[in-house]
Amino acid sequence: MNHFVIVALVAAICLGCNDIRRRKEDVLREDLYSLRSAIDQFTEDRKRPPEGLDDLVLHEYLKSIPKDPFTNSEKTWQLIYEDLKNSPEDIPAAPPREIPNRRGIIDVHSGSDQVGTNGTRYRDW
């Protein structure tokens, strides 16, 4: 009987862990959607991508930068920047010092190396 109780307890703990992981995954999906939507809207409105996530808060596209549910930090988001080498050739003429040499964010991923329930790393979502 004691062995059965231990096995049942371990099974219950494992199921609880999976439930917590799935809830965190749901939060990650929502956060990525919100961040990506804010980046897209900022880019559309301002005709340039944001230089950092702080731009999204400063210009009121987000109330705050969410915490990555798997790293528990708002500072671990992995930012994907545009490639300035592939910028359009038809930039309006301006003295070189006036052409901004800034890279903007075009995508964002989790900073976690953990593997999700779907078998892919959260950083690849």
Order of helices and strands: HHEE
User: How many helices in DSSP terms?
Assistant: 2
Coarse structural class: mainly alpha
Lateral strand order in the biggest sheet: 1-2
Number of β-strand runs: 2
Give the uncertain stretches in residue-range form. Answer: none
- The tally of structural domains comes to 1
Strand content: 5-15%
Instruction: Determine the N-to-C terminus distance.
Output: 44 Å
How would you briefly describe this protein structure?
With 125 residues, the protein is mainly alpha-helical. It has 2 helices and 2 strands.
What can you see in these coordinates?
With 125 residues, this protein is mainly α. It has one domain. The chain has 2 helices and 2 strands; from the N terminus they run ααββ. Strands 1-2 form a two-stranded antiparallel sheet. It is elongated, with a radius of gyration of 21 Å. The N and C termini lie far apart (44 Å). The mean pLDDT is 85.
What's the layout of helices and strands?
Elements: H1 2-46, H2 53-58, E1 78-81, E2 105-109
Antiparallel strand pairs: 1-2
Q: Descriptors for this entry?
A:
mainly alpha; 2 strands; 125 residues; two-stranded antiparallel sheet; 2 helices
